[in-house]
Amino acid sequence: MSALEFRQVSYRYPSENFDIIDRLSFQVEPGSFHCIIGVSGCGKSTIFRMTNGLLQPKGGDILVDGQPVGGRKRYCGYMPQKDLLFPWRTVGENVALPLEIAGGLSKVQRRQKAQAALADVGLEGCWDKMPHELSGGMRQRAAFARTMLTGSDLLLLDEPFSALDFLTRISMQEWLLDQWGRHKKTILFITHDVEEAVFLSSSVLVVESTPICSLTEIPVPAPFPRDRSCLKMPEMVDLKERLIALLRKQVRP
Amino acid sequence: MKRACKGNLPALIFLLVLVMVWQAGAMGMNASYILPTPLEILQRMWELRGPLFTVHLPATMAVTAIGLAISLVLGLALAVVMDASDMVRRMLYPVVVVSQTIPTTAIAPLFVLWFGYGIWSKVLVTVLITFFPITITVYDGLRSAKTEMAELLQTYGATRREIFWKIKAPCALPYFFSAIKMAVPMSIIGAAIGEWLGAQSGLGYFSRRMMTQLDGAGVFAPIVILSVTAMVAVGIVALLERKFVRWRGES
After folding, report:
1. Which ipTM was obtained for this model?
2. Do A86 and B154 touch (CB under 8 A)?
3. Over the stretch B128-141, which tens digit does the pLDDT of each residue have?
């Protein structure tokens, strides 16, 4: 059974006269790490927004763990581009938000779980800090801890590191792979950074054209666990060049 | 506190100089029925302390408090329904704006005709003056909540009510305090205008009565009390704000 499956899914924005997602089908097996890569504005975020229920597809079925998503709640954890930590809440209160919404836990239990999640992302002792006191990388880790607390096995990460500086970004990538290795979640990760996609994923899903009618799956020839030295392997360099060539065709300067 | 005093020092010195110029000018003019000196005003305030502080100040404060309370309930309710429903917003927003084009002082005598010399005609003037800034400011505060944040909570399975309390309300809180800080002095002015136009008690009424007696210092004394009260009230709101608002604007 797939962790996520699209069957002939279409979507059209009300202001446009064509389907930006056109009868798209693909599936993702449980426990995998896929990056969806495509040029800006190609509609890759639309795929996420339909999966998490913020947009309703015009046609087709979306299944998570074999069940249609319509009417279901809390089946996926969504982490948008901006960390969106609420500036009026402490870091701890922010991380506990999904638990608060889900209900069913006492305040003490929520605090324990959120403390554990904070410690897990290396932010122990930041409970009472306000978000603006954290650095960009720490904020993203707090946002990731919050996403983990949705309790879902499917995580949708939409360019979470794109606003970080280069050095922070590469250490966050290594950190994310480590988290994935330990928690065994299914991760879908949107990016437009080819190197990021190649380094992170077990296979890359390429958006080759807009409207999106298919995702081209290209496996990454490097074993896990990885470190950055694998990026120097000749087959990885080839893959990167191939991806860049594929994407450049779509960019009109 | 010390730093606040230091920050206001230039203003205090300037004010003191103004008062001294006033004192000297008024003494030179020697016509205290039109222009009393600051010292005469203070002296008169002391002489009239009985009626001023036990009868007229409480009357004005009652009008202010009731008017402000009604404005708050009305303003918050209007802001929330305008934010919740686009239909309601398009229906009410223009009407709320138009209500502000009514010259309150001109229409207030009518209120006295309709509601008599009692407290309610003054309360109506106060409400008419203060509900507008509260409605519009709180509405803007509710609007300032980011849709992305609401969407994030939606993916966690939050209901509309949860989104309101966890995002909209905290976003609107700093705006709410700004609205109160605007509304408090306006409500005191509103009450005084109402009393000036027709009342049996209150500082506005008292000031007018002294005017008919050509008692210049007696006209000014209640006015000084009104503005000191407004300053104290705004100060209290500012203290509350510092306690409740941990965050203002974008971080």
Report:
1. 0.88
2. no
3. 889 989 999 999 99
